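User: Sequence in, structure out. Go.
Assistant: Echoing your sequence, followed by the structure tokens.
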Amino acid sequence: MNPYIQSLRLRTLPLSISGIILGTGLAAADLGFQMYDLRFWLVFALAICTTLSLQILSNLSNELGDALKGTDSVQQERAAYGLQSGALTEQSIRRMIGLFIGLSVLFGSALVWVALPLWSAAFFVFLGLGLLAIIGAMTYTLGKHNYGYKGLGDIGVFLFFGLLSTMGGYYLQTQTMTYQVALCGAAIGLPCVGVLNLNNIRDMRNDLTHGKRTLASRLGTIGSRIYHTALLVLCLALFCLCGHFWTLCITPVWAWHLWFVWSHHERLDKQMPVLMLTTLTVALLALI
């Protein structure tokens, strides 16, 4: 595979758009969706482009941050990314990071410009949230004040991929907010955290060796799996609390996924796309 494409980590992208699709779908239901509403589709497209740019920015920054610290110098369950394998240079990764900072700013600014009244309080709030999202995407492992090495990555994923993504997608369409949308945002954020937790369970031994104190490494082998189970169960419970019972259709797949996570200490990387794609599926099921 082309090392540049490999470093984009395309398999993570379905996860990043789950909250936007959920929030936008809930907005469409409340607004009385009209297929030919050009503004609706433009806001949705710009939100997707912004989210994808931020996700790729996060992936590239994460790769650079771990490489500079030597954390991913040895890969056991997956192929090394471009920088770790030597196929890409640090300078090329930095150029890609600059590109996706620019795309995040471009798409994010256009989104706020189209969706919100110019110079309103909400306009500036969302510009600020966009800046915060860029900083959050870059500082998970990159820089002296990274939060991933301190075990705070789970909180960042929950806030950005769950609450902010869903509530933002809804508000940009409606300029209103409801507690049910917030609950749905929390619900979809939980399996997103689960993806990070699964990644950290897989890399636990390597992370501890390099001083990366993720929440999974703090909880240990058993505790991190209990936490993983709780994330998925609570997700479905919150969706049911909001009346989205179709999400229970994912239960057999998640039951099998949890069985695999509990019964295997290797090959966990194969479960990453399973959880990512089923998270997107849950977001879609919540809209039925």
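User: And one key feature?
Assistant: The first helix runs from residue 3 to 8.
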